[in-house]
Amino acid sequence: MTPSEIAHFMASLFQRWPDKVRMLDPGAGIGSLSEAFAASFLKKARVGSQLEISAYEIEPILAGHLREHLFAIESVAGKHGGFIRTELHQRDFIEEATFASQFPGARYTHVILNPPYKKISNSSEYRTLLRHIGVETVNLYAAFLALSVALTENEGEIVAIIPRSFCNGMYFRQFRAWLLERVAISHIHVFDSRNKAFSDDSVLQENIIIRLEKGVTQGHVIISTSNDASFSDYKERSVPFSEIVHPADHEQYIHIPTHAVAGGGSLFACSLADLGLQVSTGPVVDFRVKAHTRANPTDGSVPLLYAHHFAKGVFNWPREHKKPNAILVNDETRKWLMPRGWYAVTKRFSSKEERRRLVSFVLDPTKLNADFYGFENHLNIIHSGKQGIDPDMARGISVFLNSTIVDLHFRNFSGHTQVNATDLRTMRYPSKEVLKALGKWSGVRETSDQTDIDLKIEEFHDY
User: Fold this and answer.
1) Which strand (E) or helix (H) includes residue 294?
2) In a domain, 150, yes or no
3) Beta-carbon contacts of residue 282 (< 8 Å; ≥ 6 apart)
C-alpha cells in the first residue's frame, strides 16, 4: 500500500484544477491515493468545483476497504462544502481500459496511480489486448501507466509511483517511444534510500514518482530527491530535457541526473563498438551444465569463474566455495567457453546499498594458465570477437569503470542494482589512447585504492 506521506506528496504535484475534475485511480488498493487527491482538491480547487473519482480494484478484500474509504471521502467533502462523487469499479482495469481507449468520449483530467508490479508473459491475453492500442510492454506497471495515458485528455496530468526499469534497457524500448510521443515529463522524484522509503521493497531497482502531462510541449524537468518518505530533506532542481533524454539517443533512455557529475569531457567519447570491442553476459549457466562442473580442477577441466573469485579486487582461484571451480572441456561445454586471454570483467549484481554499482576486474592470463575459461552468467565480459583484448585496454577499461565519476554517471542512467551487458554496451568510454594510458599506469602498480583511481581519472577529464 502507498504510505500516507508518499500519497500526499504525489497529490501535491498536480498543478491544474479545472472546475470539473475527473480523476482515475487504477489499482486503487484501499484508496490511499484517492484520499490524498481529494484532500488536495478541497484545498486547491476553486469553490464550487466538482470532483469525480473512478477507482478500480479487483481484489475483493481490498475493494471492501476501498468502498468504505470512498464513502468517507464523499462525507468529508460534504462537511467542507465540496462536491465529490466516487465510483468503485470491481472490474479488470486492463480489459476495460483497452476497450474504452478505442472509442471517443469523456476522458480523465487527472490520474494518480501506484500500479501492480508483475511480468506479463508473451502468451498473456493482456499482451494481445495492449497491442490493439499500439502498446508493447513486459510488465503490468507499464501497462497500467500506458492505459492511464490513453484515457487522459489533452493537458491532463498523470502522477505515478513506479519502478525505474522502464527508463532503460531493450525490453522497454517500444514502450518508451510510445510514451514519449504522447506526454511531456515535468517532474521526477527519487528516494536516496530505497529501504527507508519502502519497507517492503524486494525489487532490485529504485521506485520513482513521475509527473506527466499529456499533449503539451516538453520543457525543463524538475528533478527532486529526498532520503526517505518524510521528505524532510527535500531538494529539487530544474534541468533541460536534453539531460533526461539525449537528443541523439535512438534508444531514448531516460536519465535521472540526481547525482551532480562535473566535467567528464572526452572521458565519454566512444562506444565499445568504436573501440572494436564487445560485451557479453557470461555464457555459462551453471545449473544447465551441472554434470560437467567440478568442485576442484581435474584433468580435462578448465577454470569456471564466478564473481567471488574476484572478491575485494584480488583474484583467487581455485577458491573453497559451495560453487564449483572447474568445468570439463568436451563437445557439450566447448561452445560456452572463451579462449585464454586478457578480459575486463564486471559483476552483474550488487547489493542494494553497496557503495558502488559498477565493480570491474581484470583477468590476467599470466595468473591463470589454461587454454579456455568458463565465465559464469553473473559476470559481464568485455572482449573482442569472443577473444581476449590488449592487456592495457583491459586494465584501462577496469580503471575507468571503477572510478567514482563513472559510477555516478551510471546511477544517473540506471536505477538497477543489476548491471546488464546492454548497459555497458550503451555507455560511453574514453578513446583507445586514454584507456591504454590508464592501463599502463595500472600495470606498474601493485594496488590502487579509490582515491588513486579518481585522481588519475581527473587527469583525463579534458584530454
Assistant:
1) strand 293-294
2) yes
3) 305, 348, 375, 376, 377, 378, 379, 380, 381
Same domain, 280 and 328: yes
Phi, psi of 95 (to 5 degrees): -60, -45
Same domain, 207 and 306: no
Q: Among residues 310, 375, 285, 390, which one has the least CA distance to residue 339? A: 375
Cα–Cα dist 232/236, whole Å = 13
Cα 236–Cα 356–Cα 275 angle in degrees, nearest 5: 100
Average pLDDT, the chain: 89
pLDDT score of 262 more than 60: no
CA of 314: how far to CAs of 216, 217, 308, 360, in Å?
Answer: 53, 52, 10, 11
User: Which range marks the domain in which residue 239 is found?
Assistant: 4-243
Write the CB contacts of 360 (distance below 8 Å, at least 6 apart in sequence): 344, 345, 346, 397, 398, 401, 402
- Amino acid 84: pLDDT: 93
Instruction: State whether 91 and 142 are in the same domain.
Output: yes
Number of domains in the chain: 2
pLDDT single digits (tens) 365-416: 999 989 999 999 999 999 999 999 999 999 999 999 999 888 888 877 665 5
Q: 144 and 16, same structural domain? A: yes
User: For residue 259, what are the contacts with CB-CB under 8 A and spacing of at least 6?
Assistant: 408, 411, 412
Neighbours of 417 (CB within 10 A): 18
Task: Give the pLDDT of residue 201.
Answer: 46
Q: 126 with 234, same domain?
A: yes
Q: What is the DSSP string of 382-420?
A: EEBTTB---HHHHHHHHHHHTSHHHHHHHHHH--BSB--
Q: What is the distance between the alpha carbons of residues 186 and 402, in angstroms, rounded to a whole number?
A: 33
**Could you give the CA distance from residue 70 to residue 63 in angstroms, rounded to a whole number?**
10
